[in-house]
Amino acid sequence: MAQARDNGTTVKVVGGSFPTSPAPGDILVSLQYMDRLLGLDTNNKTVMVEPGMKLSTLSSLLGTINLSIDLAGRVPDLTILDCVAVGGPGLGCGETGLGSSILQVEVVTAKGELASWNWDTNTRQMGGLVGGLGMLAVVIAVTIKCCPLVMVSEISYLSSVREVVDTWSMVHRTSNHQQITWFPFTELVIISHTSNLDKLSFAVSQSRLNMFLTEASEWVATIIRRLNIVMFSSVPMLSSVLARVQFISLWTAARYRSDHAHHPAHFLPPSPIMRGTSWLLPLDCLPPLLHNISTWSQANPAPVTSPIFIQTVVSDSKDMHETRSRTSSVGSVGYRSQHVPQGVHGQGYLCPKLGGNVG
Questions:
Q1: What is the pLDDT of residues 49-81, one digit of tens each?
Q2: Please, what's the b/e burial string for 45-78 (b: 16 or more CB within 10 A of its CB; e: otherwise)?
């Protein structure tokens, strides 16, 4: 790092799971093979890992001792380093989502010095590191706070966007976590609720056949989305048909997952859900946002290649009451029309200050 700084060379350090295109002359360093488990404290429920470990791998390791990371819903299966640097749908940014579970990071600074940062004594550095696209320091180890593993039951059903707008104040209180999938060309939305299972609750895990059908439906939806992006501008009619088939595939996957017991986090390949734009918004901003999108899409009909995904994200607000609140992650992973300004490939976050009255 010190040598690169003295030579004026740009160094990009990545975790290997997020698509990166280095500029000519840049040095690209991938830490995807630094994926060891460095420490585990079962008494304090903390784990230290290297930056190249994937979330699904860490989740599997913690699951053997009935612990988990505080994540829920659709989560891209990124490496820890990419999670810290980029964030993403279901991961939040700053002290929201996964950032609230990070206790300490070991980094190498631009001067080539080793340092340990945490939220209490290095708030400014941590704020720039988490969700900062990896431009502040090189992460070499991360200590994460774990929580007890509690399986969840998932229930999915079809509704209308108008009903969601009218009843959102009640919908987001009926379960621990909510996820909405919506194509703006239709009034139909897929709503999935997950609730923690207690000792008195009963739900069976998915059978192998059920899991295969779920993964097959999600795979079909991903392939159709890629085809749709290629041809939506040249064959609008076919694009509309493919978008509807994609919606049916996503609804089929949700139906197969419904009424079963699951791990709270549903890990998915990062590429399909990371190529787009995401926003982090307070819960009470969702109804007007959905209403505005619906009104605009009706006034400007055009092919839609990908759905809008909305899910609630837990955040820790450090106010005088030390309350635990929720916000919403809104993401779109494709294009709607060539006449509409496109989102940036990657993640763009609006991170408002979250108080105890959010959610």
A1: 999 999 999 999 999 999 998 887 888 888 888
A2: ebbbbbbbbbbebbbeebeeeebbbbbbbbbbbb
